[in-house]
Amino acid sequence: MSKVNLILKDIQKAFNTGVSFMLPAVVVGGIFLAIALSSGEAGQNGMQITNKFMKNLNDLGVIGFTMMIPLLSGYIAYSLAGKPGIVPGMILGYLANTPVGDEAIKTGFLGAMILGVASGYLVCWCKTWKVPATIRTIMPILIIPIFVTFVLGMFYIYVVAQPIGFAMNWLVSFLSSLQGSSAILLGLIIGAMTAVDMGGPINKTATAFTLFLMAEGIYGPNGAHRIAVAIPPLAMAISVFIDRKKYSAEERDLGFPAFFMGLIGITEGAIPFAARDMKRVLPAIIIGSAVGGALGMMNGVETLVPHGGLIVLPAVNGKLWFFLSMFIGVAISVLILHFTKPNIEQTDSNV
Fold this sequence. Notes:
Blueprint: H1 3-38, E1 41-43, E2 46-48, H2 52-81, H3 86-96, H4 108-126, H5 133-136, H6 139-178, H7 183-196, H8 201-215, H9 220-228, H10 231-242, H11 249-253, H12 255-263, H13 271-276, H14 278-298, E3 302-303, E4 316-317, H15 319-340, H16 344-349
Antiparallel strand pairs: 1-2, 3-4
Helix pairs in contact: 1-2, 1-12, 2-3, 2-4, 3-4, 3-6, 4-6, 6-8, 7-8, 7-9, 7-14, 8-9, 9-14, 9-15, 10-12, 10-14, 10-15, 14-15
């Protein structure tokens, strides 16, 4: 086996390790959020939770989701470099999921995965340094974590975040030029942007664009966006229910949490599936979400609140097509997954 193949195999193993350690946070956070938001009412600022107990439960769910991305990144680094990689990986994963810079950029799970891999390999390089025995004892608990976190953190903030910010601003300008000229194309783009990074900068750019238009009294693009946010987790849940042999035991356990997260418009419910099988899952959910967004725009769906999923149906103009667009988008994603994902036994036998 070539060196490149060995590296790719190590990275794939690291992704699987990161997902495995992340899953409990997804389940805990998703279920708490689903229960709390189901008690709320749709308002101008999204789902409004008035019950004090449910607010506290919602806070626990938010914390669970906040921990999800650092856990993913930290244990990717751990798989590649051992214990010294955990802390840099987690801190940098948290950084990837936190707005930074003048443009308040965050790269979400994709950025966290990249930083997790980078942390792992940089830690591995640091472990090859020839240092005196007195220093070697503090290398894994002091020198390596500080060095790796500083170098990659500053590189991310000063080199990576700025170009992403400029790109996101360009995207907003481009989407604004489409408004009123091509409903189908705008819906396709908004839907695809919603699914491509599930809470990352591209998703957040679509959100910011639709919120800007809502302030101007234009609700159609928000309708497309709020249809699309539910499609990835719902599609993954339905795919798990229908094609159980295509998923590991851990992924099958995520079916019901992903379903409930889809109902309340939490796109991040699909992240564990995408992180484990990006080349098949991402195209499927992007296409399904794009179609759902386009159908919503074509049929005049308007969502009057900044939240998504079927839970906001009372605050939707064009309820039938809101539901049908979501249903069709989910069905397309599920079909793509059915024909592209092999049974898990076949995957294992080819490793």
